[in-house]
């Protein structure tokens, strides 16, 4: 069996992180997170005690592209007719009359089992699937999404070792979130406040929104020893014709495109994969980015610090250069940056 080149070996994307650096709570104020700036041209690192310092890296005419997907409370706690309890995690936003895939936790789940999630929301198991999943039919005596909003809980990531609290309802959400559909937040956007966005507008920065509804697969570890063999879960993306045209115009005029988060970057590169021009899309995206990928749209990436051996860490290594990212993460650990969803931020120039 031929040896896997180090660049494609999963172990290359591992690193040791002290457990106490995994942020369990958000900072008191969104823009109070720290900011590490990596210039991928020369590998230099700059540290800022406040994320709001990012403003200085924008020039008039630059584009800031955000993901406007909104997290819906996808975790449901229900009861069986026997009184036994079950925990369900909806894997996408359900629509009236359409079955929805879900993860379940509980004993003896079988097709035909009826579940109650409070007074107005009921479910029926249509089919059991592999990997602890079920196909679920949901119905409500009122609006389905309203019922889910009422009884559901925010599905915090598995590395946050606590139960969801009241503040998570608005802090595990960006200030510009509009379209419900994500089961995990596009967390790079957590650091932006309305005030910071307004200051950027005043500076002449154009802020545009695309949509990628983040699926639970974002937490799925890469298991293939050769990272090229990993398959990414598909997620729904949308770019309007107006936004596509605005981005293409900026690229033609030499204005920089800043992507907020790996979700935004993947959506833009997915839409431009044919010839470098961003096309309007409304589709399922399974684009997997690893070193060797040719980036056509995004000039600068705003992101958080990602899990070792994850597709997101592999993506930022592809964008910034593997050695640059390894050094930046080592420095972040040394300086006690906070990691993952509620952690600190990174700007890759």
Fold blueprint:
Layout: E1 35-38, E2 45-48, E3 63-67, E4 69-71, E5 75-79, E6 85-90, E7 100-105, E8 114-117, E9 121-129, E10 133-140, H1 144-151, H2 168-171, E11 179-182, H3 194-202, E12 206-212, E13 235-239, H4 241-252, E14 257-260, H5 262-271, E15 281-285, E16 300-304, H6 311-320, H7 322-334, E17 345-348
Commentary on this structure:
The strands form three sheets. The protein has a nine-stranded mixed β-sheet. Strands 5-6-7-10-9-8 form a six-stranded antiparallel β-sheet. It has a two-stranded parallel sheet with strand order 4-11. The protein is built from seven helices and 17 strands. With 349 residues, the protein is α/β, with parallel strands linked by helices. The chain is globular, with a radius of gyration of 21 Å. Helix 6 (311-320) crosses helix 7 (322-334). Helices cover 19% and strands 25% of the residues. It has helices at 144-151, 168-171, 194-202, 241-252, 262-271, 311-320, 322-334; strands at residues 35-38, 45-48, 63-67, 69-71, 75-79, 85-90, 100-105, 114-117, 121-129, 133-140, 179-182, 206-212, 235-239, 257-260, 281-285, 300-304, 345-348. The protein has two domains: 6-71 and 168-348, 3-Layer(aba) Sandwich (QueA-like); 75-151, Beta Barrel (Thrombin, subunit H), CATH 2.40.10.
